Amino acid sequence: MPEGHTLRRLADDLDAAFKGSLVRVGSPQGRFEADAAIIDGTRLLGADSAGKHLFVEFEHDHPVHVHLGLIGGFDVHTGVDEVPLPVGQVRLRIVRADLSAYGDLRGATQCELIGPTRRDEIVAGLGPDPLRAAADPDRARRRIKASHRPIGDLLMDQAVLAGVGNVYRAEVLFRNRIHPLRPGNTVRVSQWRTIWADLVDLMREGVINNRIDTVRPEHTPEAMGRDPRRDDHGGEVYVYRRTGQPCPVCGSPVRTEVLVGRNSFWCSQCQPRFRSRAVESSTASARGPRT
Fold this sequence. Notes:
Shape: globular
Radius of gyration: 22 Å
Number of strands: 10
Order of helices and strands: HEHEEEEEEEHHHHHHEEH
Strand order of the largest sheet: 5-7-6-1-2-3-4-8
CATH topology of the largest domain: Helicase, Ruva Protein, domain 3
Largest sheet: 8 strands, antiparallel
């Protein structure tokens, strides 16, 4: 599933192609035909993202809400000489009135014309998004601090933290040496602040580069003399989808386990299981005094 940086990049691409312009809107597939007729011939005011949700704003208070789901894609083309006939199951097609740009949405789980109130309700139901300047990381921290659920689960909960998916979840926990099964309420404030700052930086780089790169300069293929990663997700990562391969930092094999329906990846050496001081103290007491 596309992560938050993909949606932010897509919103920027839609702005660059259509913002402020009159557009023709259609639904070659037919599933969005009635709603498309309402906004056809109006002006596209801009696009924005919140977590994994995309909002395309048309005049007269007509936002279109898009969620790409697992296989959705929104291809935006600019500087074209002509607009070709749609290919495949195109749910939504936007064409700039001067025919210089067009965009095709396919495979999305949601594409609906909503009102401003519904848009605000969707955004209000999300946790803070590291890509939004006004996001308040303390909102997420309070929910994490109050929960016994694993931090690896909480980071993927869009009501706790918006935009983070399986790749960023695995990588930010590795970079901060935190095991994905560590209970949320044991994560210290200082650790959470570092995780948040890390996500802000990594996801902003993802928007710029249009891929996820998480390795530090000293662990790049060039610095380590290793082959670049070859994976259809692209980008250089530490543990994501590297099960059984050596950790780039310590050499231990990367491990995986299903966590709330999704594969979680970690290094047992760099991310040791959390043991509370209370558990350690009781274990030491059970062993008795040293002689």
